[in-house]
Every structure is written in C-alpha cells, then in structure tokens.
Design brief:
The complex is a heterodimer of chains A (92) and B (502). With 92 residues, chain A is α+β, with helices and mostly antiparallel strands. Chain A has 3 helices and 4 strands, in the order E-H-E-E-H-E-H. Chain B has 2 domains: 274 residues, Alpha-Beta Barrel (TIM Barrel); 134 residues, 2-Layer Sandwich (Nucleotidyltransferase, domain 5). In chain B, 50% of the residues are buried. Classes of the chains: A alpha+beta (92), B alpha/beta (502).
C-alpha cells in the first residue's frame, strides 16, 4: 500500500516536507516514494498529503495505479482544450 | 536653449478627466520619491527595481532556491523551464542555498554594480522557508553590502514575518491580485492550507486574509512592503483601483501593476483558455488612473526567478553552476572594489539628479506650450542616453512628452517571449511585431535605423529618428517634441494614434 511518483514529476520539492512518514526522497530524474515507508497517510491525515500539494496532474498514482489528480482537476483546463492547444502549437 | 526635463506640475487637465490623479503623484520618478518619507526614500532611491534612474546604473539578481509552491495561479505553469523565456516562475537551474551564496558572491565580484539580491521562486520563497532563510542568513553575514529582497504570494507570510525581520531584509513584495474572494476564485484554482487542498472561493478567501494579515504585520515591524498586481482584463482590471486603495491605506509604499503574460505555448490556464493580456494603452490607463506611487515602477521587467544583471538584460549564462564552480572569489577585496565603484556611480547619479532639478526650476520660468502630449519610443542600453541601434533593441522605453515636460511611461518588449525563429504564429516578421509593439508612439529615437525598418516605421506613422545618438534621453525627447510642435504636427489627433486605437 503506497503511492507512486511518476515521470511527469517536475522536482518542485513541495511534497517532500509534507509527507508524515518521510517516505519521499529526491532522486534522478525525479522524486520517488519509498514504498516500505509510505502509509498513504493513514492514521495521520484523511487525504494524501503529497497529492494534496502536488501541482502536476497525473504525477502521483494511488496503489491501484490511478492518478490521484486526474487531467483538468488542478489547472481547471479541460483536457480536450489542452490537447487542442498543443495540437495547434505542433502544427506550426 | 532651456530644456524642460522634469514634469514638475502634474497635468490635471489631461488626467483629471479620468478622475484618478492625486496632486503631486503624476510626476517623474524623482518627484514621486519626493513624496516619500526620507527613511523610505533612502532605502529605495538606489534600488534598480524601484528607481527609474537607478536602474540605468545598478543591477540585480534573483537566485532560484525556492521550488515549492503552496498555491496555483492561473498565469503560472509549474512545468516550465525554457532558456528563452523571461517571466516570473521560469528558471533553468535550481540552486541549493550553498550554491546560491556562491553564485551571488561570484556575480557581486564580476558585476560590481549588482547591489540587490532577491529570492522570487520559481515557487513561493516562503513555502520553502528553510532554503530561503538559510540563503538570507548566510548572505547577510558573508556579503553584507548586498540588499536582500523577497517576494511572496502571501499565504505563508504571517508565520514568516518574525524570521524575515531577523535577516536584514528591508523590502518584501506581496503579489495581491484581488481583495475579493469571488474574483480570487477566477485567479487561484486552489491553495494548500492546513494539510488540505482547498479550491475555489473558500481557498481564495483564506489566501486574501493571509495576504492582508501579512501586510499589516510587516508594516507593524517597519519592513517596507511593495504590492504587485497582475492586470487580467475582464477578471480584475476594474478591481485593481480598489486593491490599490486598500493596500496603500494599510501602509504599502508602492503598488506595481503588471500586465498578464499569457500565451498558449506556456501551457497556463489563461494561455490555453485564450485569456488575453492588456494592451499597452490599457495598462497605462490603469497605471495612470491609480497613479500615485505606481509611477515608480513603470520600468519593471517582470524578471525570471533566476535573472542576473541590469534590468532588461540577463547574464545568467555567465554564472551557471559549472562556471561558478571554477571561480575563486575573494569577497573581502571584491567588497573594497565594489565600494569604490558604488561611490562613483552615486556621484554621477547625484550630479544628474541635481542637473534635472535645476532644469525643472528653469522650466517653470518658460512660457508653457499648449500642444497635446506625444508618446515616443527610445532604444537604449543604459546610462540614460540614446545609444542603441533600432535593430538591436530587445525592448524600447516609452516616454511621454507634453508641455509639462517628459515622463517615463513604460518599457515594451520588441522580441517575442519565445523568439526562437524569425516568425511567430501569425506569420508576422519580427520587425512587424516590433512595430506593432510601438503602437501609439509617434517617433522612435535610436542611435541608428536601417533602411528597411525606416520605411516600415514611416508607413506605420512612427517617425524614425537617429539624430540624437548619445544624447540624454529626456533632453532628446523634448527636443524632438519641440520640433514637432514647431512643425505644427501637434495640433490635431495624429493619424497613427487614431489607427492604433481603432
């Protein structure tokens, strides 16, 4: 039972100090979670601390491999709008 | 010939109609500072970010030690790192406090006119208190001749005031875009507060309360507070006059309104959703209508969180981690050298300030023109003179000449934020983009202008002028203004300005 940080992490350090179990550590190319230490905040907080401050949608997965912050949930940008803007940019 | 270079009497006829201009607050930088108490003026008059004339002489730097943030703003994308970008929140290399101290001392030794060190991100400095305060603590001990500044979104500010007051930091900048939670919810999608992510109006309300509380606490401690606001048309543009009133009544000495930077390629909410930034005219109108102390920061460049050098330039490439690694800095001797250079700059600035004041005095005795005001663009690389080729200018300074004298209005970028190639999305050439950036101006003063831009400028109704190379900016602008007046060009509304506002 542990969360996982994946490659879209931008190394902003925000999650590291808020982890109650000191399970998050700086690594290359991005921060990682020590699965043996992560408690998913159980007993400490009702919500994942790392995923509550993480600014990047999709960068932290729960133990089922599902993004805790799905696309659009943090920036408010509808995913189709983002895809549209990126396609527009690539066409130039 | 006597040249009026100081706007010593505010033009109420022109600004009064907009209902915004308080007496004594529409002057030039020097006049503006005269209205500040001595204790504050002392601290800011040689600060390149606060003093328009000082920024031609002194340099600043930011060290990127603060990566984490505790809120999300719709104009920010935390994924960004692009060497070609210059805007807040963008950095190339994150530094540890130790690296930041080393870099600061390396820059101080090599660019002796660097007097100010700021921590501004790329996240929120106070959301990274250990890294931020470690950097400040060491610099105030090891490089005591450098002024320290910090900027913050304000959420963690009340808890940091005590610590801030220990580190010889006399300026704090708080970004306050609103005092209304409903408007706040349109700018800040969420905050991280007491172990939860709080979205919408509820989050914005907490942020606003923390900002205001932090502002009051800093003032109570005697720390100077500047407030930055991002002008977002249709979101907070109508509301910023209220923000200005509130923060000034609480004791902020300066309110700096900056334009929103939003492009789809930045991947920000505003960029992707097509929120536009203000036009130069809209920005100037708002800055004028709130006027007051805002005049002091018209030269603000919205620097990157790792900018190095004079405002408008970035010498960060000379001080990358691998380069500073090899530098041996003897700070004690560097500090001696810096002191001598600072004294020489000070003497030059003092004599120029005195000269301006004398000319303003003389101007009072000259019969007043009754011609309309004119905007002019100037290409300069510093020292207060016209010394840059049109084609080399990455930005232009905009001045307004009127019968009251010459006043600095703003700077406008000439190149694209991500100028990697020669054309931008609309198929416009860099030259066309530059000329569009000068809309509303009727003349451009530079050391030289090439044939092609000369023709395009003329076609756009902007008179190219290379006749005042190496002359002091304000005197040259006034000379051109008088030529225009003598030629009878200032009686009717100009074609170019009419077109630009159409």
């Amino acid at each position: 039972m542990a969360v996982k940080i994946i490659e879209s992490c931008v190394n902003c350090f925000a999650c590291e100090p808020v982890c109650p179990s000191k399970a998050i550590f700086e690594a290359k190319p991005h921060f990682l979670v020590d699965a043996s230490k992560c408690t998913e905040c159980e007993g400490d907080f009702p919500v994942f601390q790392c995923a509550s401050i993480c600014p990047i949608e999709g960068a932290i997965l729960d133990s089922f491999g599902i993004a805790i912050n799905p696309p659009g949930s943090l920036t408010g940008i509808p995913p189709e709008k983002m895809a549209e803007a990126m396609a527009e940019l690539q066409s130039h | 010939m006597q040249l009026p270079v100081l706007n010593d009497t505010p033009s109420h006829a022109e600004h009064g109609a907009k209902g915004g201009c308080a007496a004594s607050s529409c002057g030039t930088t020097e006049n503006q500072m005269d209205s500040l108490p001595d204790s504050i003026r002392e601290k800011v008059q040689n600060h390149p970010c606060y003093s328009e004339d000082a920024h031609h002489y002194f340099a600043r730097m930011h060290v990127a030690v603060a990566p984490a943030c505790n809120i999300q703003c719709h104009y920010c994308n935390r994924k960004y790192d692009c060497a070609n970008e210059s805007r807040p929140g963008v950095v190339s290399e994150l530094l540890t406090p130790d690296q930041a101290v080393k870099k600061t001392m390396a820059v101080a030794a090599n660019i002796p006119q660097m007097t100010v060190l700021g921590i501004a991100g790329p996240g929120d400095p106070l959301a990274n208190p250990e890294r931020t305060f470690e950097t400040f603590r060491r610099l105030s001990e090891e490089a005591p001749d450098i002024k320290l500044c910090v900027s913050t979104n304000g959420l963690a500010l009340p808890d940091a005031v005590e610590e801030l007051s220990k580190h010889n930091i006399d300026h704090v900048t708080i970004t306050i875009n609103t005092v209304d939670p409903e408007i706040g919810a349109k700018i800040y999608p969420w905050i991280f507060w007491k172990n939860r992510r709080i979205k919408g109006i509820k989050g914005a309300k907490i942020l606003i309360e923390q900002q205001q509380k932090g502002l009051e606490m800093l003032i109570a401690k005697g720390i100077l507070v500047k407030v930055n606001s991002v002008m977002i048309p249709g979101v907070n543009d109508q509301h910023l006059a209220e923000v200005s009133k509130v923060v000034k009544s609480k004791g902020a000495f300066l309110h700096n309104v900056m334009p929103l930077i939003a492009e789809a390629e930045h991947g920000t909410f505003y960029g992707v959703m097509g929120q536009r930034g203000p036009t130069p005219e809209e920005l100037q109108d708002l800055q004028d209508s709130c006027s007051g102390d805002m005049n002091m920061m018209r030269h603000c460049r919205q620097c990157r969180a790792d900018a190095v050098g004079m405002l408008g330039e970035d010498r960060g490439d000379e001080f990358t981690l691998d380069k500073i690694e090899d530098m041996e800095i003897d700070y004690a001797s560097a500090m001696e050298k810096r002191k001598v250079i600072h004294q020489a700059i000070q003497a030059e600035m003092d004599s120029k300030r005195l000269e301006k004041a004398e000319k303003a005095q003389q101007h009072k005795q000259v019969p007043k023109l009754t011609t309309r005001p004119v905007l002019m663009a100037v290409a300069t690389s510093g020292q207060g003179v016209i010394n840059m080729h049109f084609g080399h200018a990455k930005e232009f300074l905009i001045y307004e000449a009127s019968p009251d004298g010459v006043r600095f209005i703003s700077h406008r970028k000439a190149d694209q934020y991500c100028a990697g190639d020669t054309s931008c999305g609309d198929g416009e050439s860099v030259l066309q983009v530059t000329i569009r950036a000068l809309s509303g101006c009727e003349a451009v003063l530079c050391s030289k202008v090439g044939y092609e831009p000369w023709e395009m400028l003329e076609a756009a109704g902007i008179a190219p002028n290379g006749e005042h190379a190496m002359e002091p900016i304000e005197e040259a602008v006034m000379a051109v203004y008088k030529e225009m007046a003598a030629a009878g060009k200032l009686d009717a509304k100009p074609e170019a300005a009419a077109r630009a506002s159409a």
